[in-house]
Design goal:
By secondary structure, the chain is of the alpha+beta class. It contains 3 helices and 6 strands; from the N terminus they run H-E-H-H-E-E-E-E-E.
Length: 115
């Protein structure tokens, strides 16, 4: 009985780690050094709607469409030294998706963290 309980706990932990890893996607991001919060917000929305939605079939399926509406509340964008955290909401016909996008302008990458 103890072995079964331990094995179940291990399997739950492994599936949790796998789900967490799948909820983060790191992508290349155009250089944005020197941008302000408005510019970063616009770049994140553009990146998602023009690049990511076309590549991420799971998002299309969840949202229920390939041309969702994306927005950022500019007051929630934070950052300094060309590193930003941008909360992104994407609305489709089925549901909304929420990401916090961490942008590193110097390195030229962004990580989409599903919320």
């Amino acid at each position: 009985m103890k072995k079964r309980t331990a094995m179940t706990a291990v399997l739950l932990l492994m599936s949790s780690v796998a789900a967490h890893a799948a909820s983060e996607k790191t992508v290349s991001f155009s250089k944005c050094k020197g941008q302000d919060a408005d510019g970063i917000a616009a770049k994140v929305k553009q990146d998602y709607t023009q690049n990511r939605i076309n590549q991420w079939a799971d998002d299309q399926k969840t949202l229920g469409q390939a041309d969702p509406v994306a927005w950022v509340n500019i007051h929630d964008v934070t950052g300094k030294n060309d590193k930003w955290k941008v909360p992104l909401t994407v609305r489709g016909s089925n549901t909304d998706l929420h990401y916090v996008v961490t942008v590193d302008c110097v390195a030229g990458n962004a990580t989409y963290h599903a919320q």
